[in-house]
Amino acid sequence: MRCNVNVQISYRLQVGFLYLSVAEDYFTGLVNLHCKGWKSVYCDPVRHAFLGASTTNLNDVLVQSTRWSSGLVEVALSRFCPLIYGPKKMSALQTMCYGELAFFPFYFFPLWCFAIIPQLCLLNGIAVYPEASNWFFIVFSFVFLSSLSKHIQEVLSTGGSMRSWINEQRMWMIRSVTCYLYGSLDAIMKRLGMKEANFMTTNKVIDVEQTKLYQMGKIDFQTSIMLLAPLVILTIINVVSFVGGVTRAMVTGKFSDMFIQVFLSLFIVTMGYPVIEGMILRKDKGRIPPSVTILSVLVSTIFLSLGSLVLSVLLK
């Protein structure tokens, strides 16, 4: 019996899914397929070959994405890191693709920086980007616009709409400041032995009210405060930054110097409109709880006050 079990385990390690990570599909593709010589073939038939049920509310999206992020970072920090394990077994491009996915959750760091540092400097009249008349302004604009244009092209070419593009942008930004952050921290803490491994399941029960909100195109904000608070805090910071920055620019006449920072705050506020709507306008069950809004206002006020104090000390 023991021998039979060993044979089964050996067989599964050769041809089956590898469940050594919660990102089992990614891990299996890396270790059991592409690193063993398998080649991928793009298949996109007119009739969809695979159909599945996607998450339809914010809580399930964030829980699921946090689990995936943790699994990807676990692989990135293990001996199976694609940049170490892959080069001798896969092509350079394949290795880079797997590496990009493994380290994708670390997007949380630059996204958090983009969401708070330029805004804090804007409120204090500090320019961190070239002014609109500077030649380097074109470089920054090109990088930003080309990235958005490429995403729009991908969405439209696959049958999506501009509304789909906006929703994808919003969800990417939401995941970046919540799921990617918590997933990365979870994987790092497990690696350091500060936390035991666990498995967060995604809710599969269909809620009628949540389904109605989804069909209406509204986000259901019924989720934990740990996942919701960062969204509200960053939205408040950017609203305050935009209003304060535009006012300062009009008074001082330095709108050209602050144009990129003002535009960045406006872009984040625009993408975060559902959060503003959930805080102020909505009265349904899926709105943002007033307690979360009040807490986020307090945290935002403390952050902006302390940040302004630190900047004033550093610039003396």
From TrEMBL:
Keywords: Cell wall biogenesis/degradation, Glycosyltransferase, Membrane, Transferase, Transmembrane, Transmembrane helix. Its main location: membrane. It is found in: Endomembrane system. It comes from the Eukaryota. The keyword S-adenosyl-L-methionine does not apply. The chain crosses the membrane at residues 101-123, 135-152, 172-189, 225-246, 258-280, 292-315. GO terms for biological process: cell wall organization; cellulose biosynthetic process. The keyword Transferase applies. This is Cellulose synthase-like protein. It comes from Rhododendron griersonianum.
